[in-house]
Recover the amino acids of this structure.
């Protein structure tokens, strides 16, 4: 039997990078390559790297080194690929280095170093392309790059300026995924609410509908697919208010992932964040009045250069008043190439860690209080896993990997991908427990 060339794949970083990995793998499968689950069976390994913070850079470099040690033939792509000299200084033997979303370049390099054996019987693809997520949910990336110049971030230098996908292309992909059994679409990009800006909100038609390439039109059309649609990485521009009625009407999930990053106006100005804060609390209140079930997730940075104790206390006050449902927090990390590295008055590491602990202690209390309010409520949940003790699910308030879980003891008869109704009976600061209705 003729050997089928096999490619191993390591995907690091955020869901946007995961979507890139899926696109590359789909192109490789189209060429007849097998995808190997381990180094030993692979003829070559592709490492899709992350370069956002120093810890991610180190993880990427370590993964490249491991792949070289275990396999010997490695192609590098992804965000860290924009810093080729840094990669080759550590690992000069890599075969090729490309930047982010360089799908064709990666595939061409694989072909060069591992010529394909095309066989139409082994190259058949499912209609939704190759996925790295479970069958019942999928990430869908609507744009590349970002137009902002946040001082702590180097994403624009690695992924470029905003480039939106045509809305009919996005909707066609979403429809294929729904037809293939996907129950939840997670919409991702660097700046989801800026979608279509670079295309001047170009008008088009899709299945007889007149649509503009913009955030609202996309959300409304996705809401017609009859599956869960979850919005990530949304900047709180005024036009975001327009999609809250879609959430209240059950068209898309009542969930917004908004990276506020801080609450103090001086720190936000130093960060060069695009959204002002003075109306943020009022807008959160208005969103909750219109859609009481809305779940708000956000991320914050503590210990940004120059952050004073008073400014940090302002952030804690904001947290107490906003009562956000899901929150992630990081200490400021000086990323190679970020403008914020040059700001004066860096915060000592021990102060950063102390502030992080205070922040997370407060948020744990807030999260526990908000989850406790769900006790006694009936909720629809999506089954992610069935284990010996029962089923593990997520509610409309829970994105995969980053939010909490719903545990259903004894429900071993359920199947992954089922929607079921439960009554919430208990909760802690992260997760809830329910019984089947």
């Amino acid at each position: 039997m003729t050997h089928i060339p096999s490619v191993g794949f390591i995907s690091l970083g955020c869901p946007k990078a995961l979507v890139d990995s899926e696109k590359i793998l789909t192109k490789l499968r189209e060429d007849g390559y097998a995808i190997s689950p381990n180094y030993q069976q692979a003829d070559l390994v592709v490492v899709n790297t992350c370069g956002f913070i120093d810890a991610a850079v180190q993880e990427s470099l370590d993964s490249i080194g491991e792949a070289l040690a275990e396999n010997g033939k490695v192609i590098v792509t992804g965000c860290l690929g924009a810093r080729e000299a840094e990669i080759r200084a550590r690992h000069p033997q890599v075969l090729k280095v490309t930047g982010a979303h360089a799908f064709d370049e990666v595939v061409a390099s694989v072909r060069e170093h591992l010529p394909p054996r095309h066989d139409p019987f082994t190259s058949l693809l499912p209609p939704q392309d190759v996925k790295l997520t479970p069958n019942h949910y999928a990430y869908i990336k609507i744009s590349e790059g970002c137009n902002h110049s946040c001082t702590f971030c180097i994403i624009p230098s690695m992924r470029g300026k905003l480039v939106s996908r045509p809305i009919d292309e996005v909707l066609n992909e979403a429809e294929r995924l729904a037809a293939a059994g996907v129950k939840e679409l997670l919409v991702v990009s660097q700046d989801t609410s800026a979608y279509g800006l670079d295309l001047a909100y170009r008008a088009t038609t899709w299945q007889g509908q007149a649509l503009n390439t913009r955030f609202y039109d996309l959300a409304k059309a996705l809401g017609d697919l009859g599956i869960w649609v979850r919005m990530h990485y949304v900047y709180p521009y005024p036009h975001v208010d327009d999609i809250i009625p879609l959430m209240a009407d059950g068209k898309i999930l009542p969930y917004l992932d908004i990276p506020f990053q801080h609450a103090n106006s001086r720190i936000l100005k130093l960060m060069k964040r695009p959204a002002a804060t003075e109306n943020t609390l009022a807008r959160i209140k208005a969103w909750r009045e219109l859609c009481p079930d809305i779940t708000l997730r956000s991320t914050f940075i503590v210990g940004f250069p120059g952050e004073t104790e008073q400014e940090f206390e302002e952030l804690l006050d904001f947290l107490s008043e906003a009562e956000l449902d899901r929150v992630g927090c990081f200490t400021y990390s000086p990323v190679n190439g970020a403008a914020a590295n040059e700001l004066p008055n860096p915060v000592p590491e021990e102060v950063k860690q102390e502030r992080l602990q205070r922040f997370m202690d407060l948020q744990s209390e807030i999260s526990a209080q908000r989850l406790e309010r769900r006790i006694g409520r009936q909720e629809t949940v999506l089954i992610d896993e069935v284990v010996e003790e029962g089923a593990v699910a997520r509610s409309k308030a829970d994105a995969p990997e980053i939010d909490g879980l719903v545990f259903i003891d004894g429900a071993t008869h359920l199947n992954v991908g089922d929607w079921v109704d439960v009554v919430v009976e208990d909760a802690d600061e992260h997760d809830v427990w329910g019984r089947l209705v």
The chain has three domains: 6-113, 137-373, 377-436.
